């Protein structure tokens, strides 16, 4: 199982290399990762609400929705700081 820091690193890398085509997201087997990918590729935060892990969901909502306030709901200190640094 991936650590939360690894998951957030993956999320950051994915967001920096924004997928041009959402169809690439459908090949991702992990549902949370797939929904985060779709949220970023389609620029639709509605996919973030389907993410089961609360920290990943809040990170997704913050980044995709460009809403810093969601960063404060992240319990992982490193992930929270990473999220806040994006604004």
- Please report the number of helical segments: 4
Uncertain segments of ≥5 residues (pLDDT<50)? none
**Distance between the ends:** 29 Å
What is the count of distinct domains? 1
Strand content of the residues, in percent? under 5%
* Strand-pairing-aware structural class: mainly alpha
Radius of gyration of CA atoms, rounded to a whole number:
12 Å
- Give the beta-strand count: 0
Order of helices and strands: HHHH
Label the overall shape: globular
Residues in helices, as a percent range: 40-55%
Main features:
87 residues; mainly alpha; 4 helices; globular
Report on this structure.
With 87 residues, this protein is mainly α. The protein has one domain (4-12, 22-85). Helices cover 53% and strands 0% of the residues. The chain has helices spanning 4-16, 31-42, 54-65, 77-85. Helix 1 (4-16) runs parallel beside helix 3. The chain is globular. The termini are far apart. The mean pLDDT is 85.
Write the layout of secondary structure elements.
Elements: H1 4-16, H2 31-42, H3 54-65, H4 77-85
Helix pairs in contact: 1-3, 2-3
Task: Briefly summarize what is shown.
This protein is mainly alpha-helical.
